[in-house]
Amino acid sequence: YAPAAEDIAAIMGGAKAGHIEKKEAMKKLKSMLVSGAFRKVQAGRFYVALSLEEAETIRRAIHLRGDQPFFADTGTRLALRCLPDNFTELDSTPKFHGAGSFQEAAAYLCLRFLDCDMYYNPSELNILLKALQESSIRERENFFSLVIACRRRMRKKWAECPIAKLFTLPDEFHLLKLRAGVDRTREAIERKGMQLQDAFTLFDTDENGVLSPSELYGALEWLGITGLTPADIMDLVRHVDMNRDGNISFGEFQEAVQGSVISYTPDAAEEEGGLRFSSEAGPPLLTRTPSTKAAFESAKAGTHVIAPKGVEELKQLQKEEVERQKKIEAIEKEREAKMKKRMEAAEGDVKSMMKAGMLNPVKEEPFTVQNVKKADGKQHQLVQSTVTTWEFTKKVLPKGLKVHGGSLTLQPDPEFEKKSNYLSLKPNSHVAVPFAKANGGDGCKRLNRYTLTMEIMVDRLPRTVMSLLQIQRGGKETGGKPNKTGDLFLHPNGTISLFRNNVGAGHRLSANEWAVVGLAMDNIAGTCVWYVGGKICDTSTNKDLMYKDGPLSVGANGFGVFRSGNPREMFGGNIRRMYMHTEVLTPKKVDEVFKKVPKGVAKEDVRKKLLQMGFPAHAIEDAIANTGREDLQELLTWLQQMGYGGGGYFY
User: Are 386 and 367 in contact (CB under 8 A)?
Assistant: First the structure.
């Protein structure tokens, strides 16, 4: 990356060129290199990878906001960048400012690494290594291998690509040391008056086409590069050896020493073994020194002047390296096995908790899906609506739901042989259900089109009116009419309607009998249909209640079941499950949803079920005669009130 001019001026103390003494200049240069001033990272700035659909949604939101802040009452700003287009900024919110050059370059390269890009130039590798040096070599390689295994595209041999260097160097200082060694080697070869091909041929004493570590060690000593240890040689081999065969080929040697031979394009990996050689002639013709001429003459005669060095020591180091790698792999495999075991145990705990009813997540699934053909010619699934399910049949409430006021109990459900529960709410209590979604067109802030289905039971019909459902008030979101609320009422005759004073028509609810109630609401069209038992109960086209983001649209606060602004209208009730579809269902689809609701014991099986529970036949007949119904819950309540217990005994 290119440091900003103002950063350089700040480090140099504002001095002008040509006005610094050599000693002072070196001091300033050293201070500049070790200060880290060119690697500034701004706290509180984050980079998040998005899918194309997510980015399109955010870009649309940016355009809709215009000059307004994207996040109200915060200083948060954001920008969208395109990774395949060199991190080009596509759009941004007002007053957004980019990061420093290093932070932006590091984020860009890390995202390319996440995208399994395998081609980087040396400066990019340096930045990427700096960004990832907190992780171990093994962790980087494991992560990259696991991610690339999930890609649908062809998995190329990354071991022969520049990315391989990221899995051999622990940090940037090792890279700096190795680059210094490579530069010394190139300069020494040029001083000897040799081209790279000639040097490689001269160093390859056994003429097998590759340089072994011992041959490289002897060659460097002949070039006059002293002070190296066998460990330094092994580090250098690991840095240059891209295919990890333990030797250095001419392509690897040339790429390391000359540094500009590889064309870093994906197509290059499919040509000439992953390498594409530059058409440039390289350095100019050089005049061989006398020692170089003598070395070539000896090589022609079969007696090499350059002898391999440290053969045994290097073999021992290679052996130790292999053993060390085996130990690391064993430790990593053991760690991975333990992690897998913990994950399986955790997954088993979750499954067992869910099976025992101690975990009750809210389920959200696609409902209406459309297949769309995109520009790339492939079919993509576009989710147009979802269905959210809340189950009250477990031992705990669905996640995120709260009960306010009064009291609640999770009762064993006799219609399901007490293997499941239902939520029983006492008077003056209700369930608060948060639900934050929006639909209905541009500018909509709330859920305007939806179908809410509830399986409920009331203990008794009200004398005046009872609230089954209330959409939580939205204040400014409700079209500037905060005093209006959206309610669904139950009347004394068992009918339901949207109006407190207007008795509904159609199918009716009965006390102590489970019923499936549905509300199909279209606030944009200003229409509403409610159902009982999958059948149309009544309709309404009241424009005072149904309009865009109006009181019957669902906002972030969600809705309340058995809730009302008037405590006298809160009689409590019972609920088994709820479904929220983010579209207006047709009567046919509403009936399909009704048929899919799990059913309990059929009426014709009530007598048999009570007999199996131990109640005497005469007591069952008395209960039916006195209640006038064959409802299991009601009969069971009457029998217990009369003193009958399981097995026919009195309490």
Answer: yes
Nearest to 632 by CA among 513, 517, 458, 508: 513
**Which residues are bridge partners to 467 per DSSP?**
489
The runs of H, that is alpha helices, within 258-373 are 290-301, 311-355
Distances, alpha carbon 390 to alpha carbons 452, 558, 603, in Å: 11, 13, 26
3-state helix, strand, coil in the chain (%, to 5): 40, 15, 45
* Cβ(398)–Cβ(362) below 8 Å: yes
Q: Rounded to an integer, what distance in angstroms lies between the CA atom of residue 356 and that of residue 376?
A: 47
Task: Using alpha carbons, list the distances in angstroms from residue 618 to 24, 614, 621, 622.
Answer: 110, 12, 5, 6
| Tokens describing residue 528 | 């509403």
Residue type, 320: E
Residues 6+ apart with CB under 8 A from 333: none
Closest CA to 234 of 306, 178, 163: 178
Does the reported pTM lie above 0.85?
A: no
Number of CB atoms found within 10 A of residue 285's CB = 7
Of 448, 436, 496, 443, which is closest to residue 468 (Cα–Cα)? 496
Residue 476 DSSP symbol: G
Contact of 513 with 532, CB cutoff 8 Å? no
The 10 Å CB-count burial string (b at 16+, else e) for 530-541 is bbbebebbbebe
DSSP state of 96: -
Question: Are residues 386 and 582 in contact, defined by beta-carbon separation less than 8 angstroms?
Answer: yes
Confirm if 162 and 117 have CB atoms less than 8 A apart.
no
Q: 187 vs 193, 225, 232, 299, CA distance in Å? A: 10, 10, 18, 22
Measured CA distances, 99 to 39, 42, 78, 96, 125 (Å): 11, 7, 11, 10, 20
In angstroms, the CA 624 to CA 642 distance is 13
pLDDT digits 0-9 by tens, 213-243: 999 999 898 888 888 888 888 888 887 887 7
DSSP codes of every residue in 359-422? --PPEEEEEEEEEEE-TTS-EEEEEEEEEEEEE--SSSPPTT-EEESS-EEEEE-GGGTTSSEE
Residues in CB range of 200: below 8 A, 6 or more apart: 211, 250, 253, 254
What is the Cα–Cα distance from 521 to 542, expressed in whole angstroms? Answer: 12
pLDDT at 351: 66
The pLDDT tens digits of the residues spanning 35-65 come to: 666 677 888 899 999 988 888 888 888 888 7
Q: Which residues contact 526 (CB under 8 A, 6 or more apart)?
A: 541, 542, 543, 546, 547
Which helix H or strand E contains 235, and what residues bound it?
helix 230-240
Specify the residue for token string 């989710």. Answer: 383
The amino acid sitting at 297 is: E
Q: How many CA atoms are closer than 13 Å to the CA of 12, on its beta-carbon side?
A: 17
Q: How far apart are CA 64 and CA 234, in angstroms?
A: 59
Q: From CA 473, how far away is CA 481, in angstroms rounded?
A: 10
Q: Mind listing the pLDDT tens digit for each residue in 391-429?
A: 988 888 888 888 887 555 677 666 565 567 888 888 888
Share of the chain above pLDDT 70, in %: 80
